[in-house]
Design goal:
By secondary structure, the chain is mostly helical. The chain contains 17 helices and no strands. Helix 6 packs antiparallel against helix 17 and helix 14 crosses helix 15. The chain is globular. It starts with 14 loop residues before the first helix and ends in an 8-residue tail after the last helix.
Length: 392
Amino acid sequence: MTTLTLTAGVPPRDRLEQIGLWSLVGIVAAMQLSIATAQILLAVAAAAWLASHVARGERLAAPPFFWPLLLYAALTLVSAGFSLDPEVSFTDSKQLVLFMLVPLTYDFARGARANSVLSIVLTIGAASAFVGIVQYAVLNFDGLGRRPSGTLSHWMTYSGTLMLVICGATARLLYGSSGRLWAAFVMPALLVALGLTLTRGAWVGVAVGVAVIFLSKDFRLLALIPIVVVAGVLLAPQALTDRVYSIFDRNDLTSRDRIAMLQAGAAMVKDYPLTGVGPDQIERAYPNYRVADAVKPTNPHLHNVPMQIAAERGLPALAAWLWFVVVTALALFRLLKTSRHKSLSAAALGGVAAMLAAGLTEYNFGDSEFLMLLLVMITLPFAANRDGGLPS
C-alpha cells in the first residue's frame, strides 16, 4: 500500500489548512461508510477553507470543469423556483453543496497529497467490498430483493462506488509508480463484490471505464475484458449468470420499465422544456405521464441521467451538465498526455466514462455518496499538479 504522504512536500500553511486537510481525509474515508459523517466533515472543511482564504485574501481556485458545475447549480435553483412544489425542490437542492468538494479537494489535496487520497479511497473501497462479500456468503444477501450493500444503505449506491474504486485500482495498476501491489491485492475482492450486487448498469459502467483506461495505455489490453467476463460467468453462481443473460432479454420487466420511463420523461420535457417539473418532482408528475407499457405505477426518478436532468431541471440545465462532462473529459485527456500524475488522470477519466455508461440505466449523478466520490476523483489530477507534487 502507498505510504500516506499527506504532508510530505506540501506542509499545511496554517492551522486552518491543517483542519481542512484532515477534514477532507475524513470525508474521503467516510463517504463509502456514512454519508451523515461525510457531510458533517464537509461543513467543517468548507468553514476552514473559507476562513483560510479570507485570512490570506486568496481568490477562488478550481479546475476548469467547476464553472459548468456552478452554472448547472444556478439553473437547478431556477428550476426549483418554477417547480410543481418549490418548497420541496429547494430542500432537495441542498445536494448542490456537495459541489464544494471540488475547490476543497483542489486546495487541500494538492501536490503529493493527491495520491495519498486515492490510496484512502482504494483502502476503504476494499474494506467495503469485504463487507459485501460477507453479507452474501454469511447473511444470505443473495437475491434481487436482498443484495449486498456493503457499508452503504442501498446496493445501487454500493455498486456505483465500487465501480469508481475499480477504475481507480485499474489506473494505479497500469500507471502507478507505487501502490500497484496493493491495487492488485484488492482488485479481486472489488470485482467479486460488484458482481454479487447483481447491478447490471454498474457492470456495464465498469467495462466501459476499464476499457477507456486500457485504451489510454495500450489498445491491446482490451482483449483482457472479454476473457475476464467469460471467466466470471463460468465461475459465478446461477443468480449472477441469470442476471447477465437478462441484459439481452427484451422481455425483462426492468428493461421494459426503463423504456417506459424514457417515454414519460420525453413527454415531461415537451411540456416543461426550460425548467423541468422541478427537483424531486418526478415521482409526483410521473403518474400523469405514465405510458401503457410501464411496469411500476410511479418512480422517484427516471433511471437515466440525461433524461432525469432534462425532465427534472430543463434543457438548459442538461446543456450545462453536458458542458461539464465535455470540459472534464477533455481536460483529463490533456492531463493524461502531459502530466506526470497519469494514474490519477486515468482513474478520473475511467470514472467519468463509467458514470456515463452506468448513467444510461441509473440516476447515479443524483446519488450523494456516488457524486461525492466522483467529484473527489476527477479533482485529484488537477490538485496533484499544484505546488510541485511528486509523480504518481
